């Protein structure tokens, strides 16, 4: 007995969570445990259906802009004791996000303390999903990136990437579950050779 096809779609501050059960839940409960930034907290459940399950979370349940985790479950015991919940998958949904190219493509300089990106508005924050670095030369080049507290902050211990080698005429792409950056944080870094590497980031942007 299990859940499958777990999914969640956000529209505004409403999340619709759906799943398929391989048993009839019309005498049981279908629900989700949910919370922001990967921290599961409260739960919401309803009387289940025969196979196709659906539950809606809204601002009345505390849903607001940001990243939300939902852990799906069903329960054949009333009134939904935690000890008898049978769990399915956990999914992440982003509420209020604008999908965008966060920065780039742009050429990295060879000056270590070069600011690559900063969002100047305290009213929004970025969630980086991917950073790609392309070597546009015929020789290997390395790069280093920091997440600093200023446009020139290269303090040891703040490295995001350190001396990563990019082969000639190759592109490296790095994916993140969600790298949050506020207006008080800068991506700072450089390449080992001037005008040899281009860098680009893709992600989502949220209103605080």
Task: Explain what this protein looks like in three dimensions.
The model has no long low-confidence stretch (mean pLDDT 95). The strands form four sheets. A four-stranded antiparallel sheet has the order 4-3-6-7, with no helix packed on it. 0% of the residues lie in helices and 60% in strands. It is mostly beta strands and 208 residues long. It folds into two domains: 3-95, Immunoglobulins (Immunoglobulin-like, Sandwich), CATH 2.60.40; 98-207, Jelly Rolls. It has strands spanning 3-11, 14-21, 29-36, 43-47, 52-57, 66-75, 86-95, 98-107, 115-117, 124-135, 141-148, 159-166, 171-181, 186-191, 197-207.
Strand percentage, roughly? Answer: over 45%
Give the strand tally: 15
- Mean pLDDT comes to 95
- Number of structurally distinct domains: 2
The major beta sheet can be summarized as:
4 strands, antiparallel
| Helix/sheet category | mainly beta
Please write the string of helix (H) and strand (E) elements: EEEEEEEEEEEEEEE
Strand order of the largest sheet: 4-3-6-7
What general outline do the C-alpha atoms trace?
elongated
Q: Helix tally? A: 0
CATH hierarchy: architecture of the largest domain: Sandwich
Percentage of residues in helical conformation: under 10%
- Name of the CATH class of the largest domain: Mainly Beta
Query: N- to C-terminal separation?
Result: 41 Å
Unreliable stretches (pLDDT < 50, length at least 5) are none
Radius of gyration: 22 Å
CATH topology type of the largest domain: Jelly Rolls
List keywords for this structure.
208 residues; mainly beta; Immunoglobulin-like; Jelly Rolls; 2 domains; four-stranded antiparallel β-sheet; 15 strands; 60% strand; elongated
């Amino acid at each position: 007995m299990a859940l499958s096809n777990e999914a969640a779609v956000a529209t505004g501050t409403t999340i619709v969570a759906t799943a398929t059960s391989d048993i009839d839940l019309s005498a049981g409960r279908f629900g989700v445990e949910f919370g922001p930034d990967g921290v599961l907290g409260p739960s919401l459940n309803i009387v289940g259906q025969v196979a196709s399950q659906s539950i809606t979370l809204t601002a009345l349940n505390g849903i607001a802009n940001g990243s939300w985790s939902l852990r799906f479950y069903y329960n054949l015991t009333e009134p939904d004791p935690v000890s008898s919940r049978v769990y399915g998958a956990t999914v992440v949904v982003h509420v209020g996000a604008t999908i965008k190219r966060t920065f780039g493509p742009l050429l990295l300089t060879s000056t270590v303390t070069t600011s690559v990106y900063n969002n100047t508005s305290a009213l929004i924050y970025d969630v980086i999903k991917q950073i790609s670095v392309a070597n546009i030369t015929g020789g290997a080049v390395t790069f280093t990136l920091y997440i600093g507290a200023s446009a020139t902050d290269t303090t040891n211990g703040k490295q995001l990437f350190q001396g990563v080698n990019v082969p000639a005429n190759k592109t490296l792409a790095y994916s993140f579950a969600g790298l949050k950056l506020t207006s008080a944080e800068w991506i700072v870094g450089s390449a080992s050779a001037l005008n040899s590497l281009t860098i680009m980031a893709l992600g989502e942007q949220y209103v605080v």
